[in-house]
Amino acid sequence: MAAAADDSAPASSSSAECPAAPSMPTDPDFLSCVLQPPTPSSSSRPDADYAALRRLLLRRKPPSALQHRMEWRCNGKGYVAYRNFLLRRIDGGSAHSTPSNSGRWAHSPGPALSEADSWSSIRDLRTNSGLSRTVSIGSKQSDTERHVRFAEPAYSFVGMHCIFDSCKTSVTILKFGRASSDLLAYGAADGSLTVCQVSEPPSVLQNLIGHSKNITYFDFSSNNQYLVSCSLDKTVRVWEISKGTCIRVVYGVSSQLCICFHPVNNNLLLVGNANKEINAINFSTGRVISKLNFDDAVTALDVDHTGQLTFAGDAQGYIYTVSVNLHTGSLSRTHKNKSSKSKSPITTIQYRTFSLVARCPVLISCAQDGNLSFFSIATDAKGYLTLICSLKLASRVQTTRASFCPFLSLEKGEFIVTGSEDANVYFYDLARPKNSCVNKLQGHGSPVIGVAWNHGENLLASSDSDGTVIVWKRAKTN
């Protein structure tokens, strides 16, 4: 502190001797930008000051981040020493997930600040600046390399929050209630639906019995008072959750494979079936008010937040964009896209309002053969999809589902979570497909089929083919 005071003394004394004068621009770039007249292309904006200022802002470059790092000091120590000190505090080796310590970064005693890792490592900073979070789980790196790079926290979990194991058959689909961090439901291959609360103490609220075959999908109403489900028994059922009763059954001619409430008009249900069609059903009456035919069975669907666009995947791996009339419920096809070269059924379609990677609405699709595709959505072109990247995972026998990771995707990269045939839950970063696996959770004893996040994004639920549902607790972050 004394040194800092001495350094500032000459500056303060000089300012007292003479009044401060306005600084004159001496940068030739500055002068040339200000004095340059507007070009003909800027005729729509005839203001010369605006054109000059815009050129100035585009011309001038920010100072080098590397220079800031070299000049940065804390208690007399440099940037690298302080950064490595923090990394040693949180990085006790490779992150190893166990059923009781899933994804937690081990801690080790942190040494005192040292300049041993000085600016001789500046070469590594140049090559890894900003992208030095590419340490994968279980990577075999030396201690020096590991300390030079930033640790990738991905999703850190502190273990299991609770387990539901009352179901004796495969849990095919699970989902948290809308805007709810506590309400969880899951459907099973025996046709049963279970509604739970995951807050302390976790408990089962309702057992909804009515379907005779596999539950393929279900959805909550906007107020979580009702639940609609579809099944291979060719029916759609409407449940009143508080009473645990089925209040309506809609019979079809083929297996009902996917269903969702319309986000704007909750009196409208969209149902995809094995008869190669999507039906728009009136929730109050159970009548089909509109239908749209496709080339194959509709296996997955999701609706954008405006309710004007629906995205559907079929059994041949195609993804369709469908326009929805909010007043009449009529449906019309606008685009058809191929998710991959294979003809594998689409198991997951999920819409996301915004992505920092794509800077627009995005969509993920997951096929049964393990092909995962990430699309940008052109809303001004009626939902036209453009493939940004794809990821090839292991082929699956089960109908394994995937989901966006909501919290971390707003910070860096585009993360998704998915189940796997090897009984693990995997996290992938679609922004770096060459080193995409960033974490995994271990605890299931059979293939993991479904995954779902709660509204608070602090809990992740996963289900497996043995009927076990595990709710994982994510570590708190500042």
Automatic annotation (TrEMBL):
<feature type="region of interest" description="Disordered">
    <location>
        <begin position="95"/>
        <end position="114"/>
    </location>
</feature>
<feature type="region of interest" description="Disordered">
    <location>
        <begin position="1"/>
        <end position="48"/>
    </location>
</feature>
<dbReference type="InterPro" id="IPR015943">
    <property type="entry name" value="WD40/YVTN_repeat-like_dom_sf"/>
</dbReference>
<dbReference type="InterPro" id="IPR001680">
    <property type="entry name" value="WD40_rpt"/>
</dbReference>
<feature type="repeat" description="WD">
    <location>
        <begin position="208"/>
        <end position="249"/>
    </location>
</feature>
<feature type="compositionally biased region" description="Low complexity">
    <location>
        <begin position="1"/>
        <end position="23"/>
    </location>
</feature>
<dbReference type="InterPro" id="IPR036322">
    <property type="entry name" value="WD40_repeat_dom_sf"/>
</dbReference>
<dbReference type="InterPro" id="IPR051350">
    <property type="entry name" value="WD_repeat-ST_regulator"/>
</dbReference>
<dbReference type="Pfam" id="PF00400">
    <property type="entry name" value="WD40"/>
</dbReference>
<keyword id="KW-0677">Repeat</keyword>
<keyword id="KW-0853">WD repeat</keyword>
<feature type="repeat" description="WD">
    <location>
        <begin position="441"/>
        <end position="478"/>
    </location>
</feature>
<protein>
    <recommendedName>
        <fullName>WD repeat-containing protein 13</fullName>
    </recommendedName>
</protein>
<dbReference type="InterPro" id="IPR019775">
    <property type="entry name" value="WD40_repeat_CS"/>
</dbReference>
